[in-house]
Amino acid sequence: MVVRLSSGNNTRYNHNMRVERRHDWQVSVAQAMDIQQRLAGQVSTSGEVITVRYIAGVDISAPKASGVATGAVVVLSYPELRVVETKIASSRLEFPYIPGLLSFRESPLILAACQELTLTPDLILVDGQGIAHPRRMGLASHLGLLLNTPTVGCAKSRLCGEHGEPGSEPGSYAELLDRGEVIGAVLRTKSGVKPIYVSIGHKVDLQTAIGWVLKCCRDYRLPEPARLAHLAAGGSLKPEKNTLAFEAGSQGRLF
After folding, report:
1. Distance CA 127, CA 152 (A)
2. 41 contact partners, CB below 8 Å, separation of at least 6
3. Would residue 82 count as lying in a domain?
């Protein structure tokens, strides 16, 4: 596999993000589910995340035509929400598309991009689920554990649970419930548009997660870090012309 990385900042600091290796990536579907159930008990659902200088957003784009996916991480300064660093990693995906197991498909590319950051974000907003997941281990929670960083899930659609309709005003939300447990919030971020599904990723509580999503919203449905990561993954937010490439025999060797 060849992973190609692009950077919007070639100034090197000793702040590169570290990835904790807690399992292999080349696993079966049954093994992946077992890993999720094991890791779910390690997710922290508390934390206020008071001091924030940098907020990152992560996302992935996987066009069917090319067969090559792109993972992106975009770091913004806070409170300005100005882009200060962008990293992109591209490769073919090795895990099949299975709802509920997307973190095994998407995490390796996102982590490869995050490892190249020269700035360490204090909080990461993930375009995906956190604990609003059948096994309470969505992409945001998985990434939070492996990066040992507070994360929030900001999904555009529901994976599990039931909820009422939130109010029409920005900031209104309804609880997302699954088997009697509050697993997230259906949050209205902009009048006249569909709400998003916010959930704890790691090292935050739900109210903190909601608060940071709202602080990062501008004039769009998605908060700026997640929105810009989506654009970067799709090639619409171009980093500067610094490109790194390396080869690895498998995704597991990236870390």
Report:
1. 9
2. none
3. yes
Nearest-angstrom CA–CA distance, 89 and 213: 25
**70, 88 contact by CB (below 8 A):** yes
For the beta sheet containing 196-202, the strands, ordered from the edge strand earlier in sequence to the opposite edge, are: 173-178, 181-187, 196-202, 151-155, 123-126, 54-61, 68-77, 82-92, 2-7, 242-247
pLDDT in tens, 195-215: 999 999 999 999 999 999 999
Is the distance from CB of 177 to CB of 162 less than 8 angstroms?
A: yes
According to DSSP, the β-strands at 68-77 and 181-187 are: unpaired
Q: Which tokens sit at 99?
A: 């709802």
Residue 177 lies in a domain: no
pLDDT at 191 over 90: yes
Q: Which domain holds residue 90?
A: 2-9+28-151+199-254
Torsion over CA of 147, 6, 214 and 199, rounded to 10 degrees? -40
Number of neighbours of residue 20 by Cβ within 10 angstroms: 9
Q: Are 71 and 106 in contact (CB under 8 A)?
A: yes
